[in-house]
Amino acid sequence: SQVIVHDVNELTEKLFPIVEAMQKHFSAGSGTYYSDSIFFLSVAMHRIMPKEITQIIQVDLDLKYKTNIRDLFNEFDNFPEGAVIGIAREMQPVYRHTFWQYRRENPQTKVGDPPPDGLPGFNSGVLLLNLEAMRKSKLYNQLLEPTTVQKLTEKYHFKGHLGDQDFFTMVGMEHPELFHVLDCTWNRQLCTWWRDHGYSDVFDQYFQCEGEVKIYHGNCNTPIPED
After folding, report:
1. Which residues face 180 on adjacent strands?
2. N or C: which end of the chain has fewer CB within 10 A?
């Protein structure tokens, strides 16, 4: 099997002009740091990878696999028409928090609400990028345009610091049809930070996950259970 190593500096050079505009909305700290572009790699992967690469799985390092990753690849076959990215829901009320102003102005909204009926936002620890679909989707590429990003951040009063995850979450509120939602068992997040930071009353509605876990995600340095 062939392994190709990509140079981070080279990737960043290609990325920066594409994602520069969105960095100011979804990066930690203020200003647009050149090096932060790498946190938006997934967003523009279809513009950077060679055309012959049609599908990519992008994963965080703090994961533990309980099943064959090949089974995750099969999820590409479940993408509905028009979907370009496979991603699991965020399992903490982080976006209930981020969208507080929009939620206050729109009391009937599902934005930031817990599953199964709400829109809790996404977690980018496990990503299925259908590069071919991303390249073909007129809608998706429009959403990368600075003016579109600006409009959406204004509509939702959105200011984030989680990079690609924030972008996908905000876009998913407006265009859920672009995403194939992975079952929580494919990205079983373990971080409970928001339970102790003002959301203990609703926390479990976000955090629960039925079924046998296929991938554990020890986000915010949470220890992953031993076998």
Report:
1. 86
2. N
